[in-house]
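> forwarded from #structure-qc
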């Protein structure tokens, strides 16, 4: 229910731990859903605001709460000043409206990941490409891979796959390697932050993400930013129209809309 819209940002609960709690602007939804019980921990796939902006507010609510994050993202979670300065340039006066209050996380609460660990019964893999500080988690017991943005976006009821490609961290080659890492787990289910579970054809979804990444990279190389943005939105709207869906579905795609790739 981000800004009143369903199926935009998903916080996943796994054995009492929260994976990607989302923005502070939607925190009350999470608190209501968990019955205001203290989470076992917070596990972040990465620190982009739509995934992690509520983290500081959760730690303020429960001061002993542990937060797991990749080593590249940890300093910006502890001191979000550079992250906020960048976000303010992008979102301007809509920053607070979109993401809510963004609070620092005390260093003592932060548990730093490099990839290769096992945390709360889940395997951790370093999966850059979308962001240089991205990790994925594999819950072997349920066969679920918690993919953040590595496995792209698929906003129901549409089957349209959209890789979120905000600069400056995009690297298509390493993103494809990260898809290989997820595929090697042979998950029966992909837990997407945007939005929901993919469980009908996991290999097919991963193949589609790979294909879309290559397609968008080539288009971005050929066009100016303005031309690419307009073309991308037009293609999304056409695809939704072909599925018989209303145009508003495009507005439920993450604010991190695909942008020209720095390639």
């Amino acid at each position: 229910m981000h800004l009143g819209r369903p199926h935009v940002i998903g916080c996943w609960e796994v054995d009492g731990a929260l994976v990607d709690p989302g923005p502070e602007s939607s925190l009350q939804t999470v608190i209501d859903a968990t019955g205001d019980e203290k989470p076992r921990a917070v596990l972040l796939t990465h620190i982009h605001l739509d995934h992690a902006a509520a983290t500081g507010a959760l730690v303020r609510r429960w001061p002993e709460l542990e937060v797991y994050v990749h080593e590249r993202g940890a300093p910006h979670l502890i001191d979000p000043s550079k992250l906020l300065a960048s976000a303010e340039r992008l979102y301007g006066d809509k920053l607070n409206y979109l993401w809510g209050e963004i609070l620092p996380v005390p260093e003592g609460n932060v548990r730093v990941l490099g990839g290769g660990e096992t945390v709360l019964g889940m395997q951790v893999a370093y999966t850059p490409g979308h962001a240089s500080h991205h990790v994925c988690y594999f819950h072997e017991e349920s066969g679920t891979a918690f993919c953040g943005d590595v496995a792209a976006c698929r906003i129901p009821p549409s089957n349209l796959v959209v890789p979120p490609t905000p600069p400056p961290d995009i690297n298509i080659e390493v993103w494809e390697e990260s898809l290989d890492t997820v595929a090697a787990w042979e998950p029966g289910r992909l837990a997407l932050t945007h939005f929901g579970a993919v469980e009908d054809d996991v290999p097919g979804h991963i193949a589609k993400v790979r294909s879309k990444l290559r397609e968008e990279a080539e288009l971005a190389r050929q066009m100016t930013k303005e031309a690419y943005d307009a073309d991308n939105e037009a293609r999304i709207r056409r695809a939704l129209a072909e599925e018989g869906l209303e145009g508003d579905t495009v507005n439920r795609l993450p604010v991190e809309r695909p942008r020209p790739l720095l390639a």
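QC bot note: The first helix runs from residue 27 to 33. Residues 253-263 have pLDDT under 50 and may be disordered.
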